[in-house]
Amino acid sequence: MKIQKLSTSSETADMSVLEIIVSPSLSKRLSPASLNSVLTIAAASSASEESKAVFNETATVAFADGKANGGPKITAINGVWVEQSLPVDHSYKDLMENVFKATFTQVDFRSKAEQVRRELNKWTSDQTNGLIKDLLPLGSVRTNTDQVYGNALYFKGTWKVKFSKSERKTETFTFSMTPQCLDIKRSFSMYFYLPDENDGLDNLVKKMTSTRGFVDDHNPTCRVTLDDFAVPKFKISFGFEASKALYHKACVEIDEEGAEAAAASFYERHSYTPNRNRFVADHPFLFLIREDTTGTVLFAG
Asked: CATH no. for residue 149?
């Protein structure tokens, strides 16, 4: 298996959510960070103080916008929408606003469910620079909806070494003239994992999700020279819903300049309990965009 790390610098994220991105018939891409955020917020009332503190610390580091310092632009927004006729638990509202940094909004699900759905979709589009549209389908927000939890994540970064825009399909991509073992410090990285076999992606994902510390253990520590480095220029998107309660969409685009990615997730709670050395990527591969200080996986596909 060949592995090459790109971008700007260097923990281990929970990779279990990654198992749903690959199936024999469908290539999927998602944002573990966005899914983890919205599910953590939905379970916040029963979360331990330790888990709340971990969420807060991780969000502070992993989602810090580095644009002002020449780094990538990144925004992560949480929101909670609550049926206005329900009593407000002020300790819960304080938890949402101060620990999870979520906007807390009272809305009229009972008589304006469709209007609220459109407002939530507009919120998603606005927070993701228009990359994620119509996340909540018609009928997904209903008159018996009590709460909706949302997360929107946006990332845009440029390559440290940009690719040529020439017509050539393969470009020389040199990190240094001779191998050097260094402590490569960067904040955000894009990882490409290319299986040796053309049909080896399923086995790679299974190995990654079952091996603790896989990403860190396969993180290169030496600068190397590649005669050829080629990955397809692409824009891909994927969405799914689970039990008509969890909705998620992600979009990732890479080109010669860098990577732009966005994701959004909504989780609904209703008045009833719902059912619950030469690297050429010419065959299916796996990618991650990760904040390396915390090990938070922002996007995967």
From this structure: 3.30.497.10
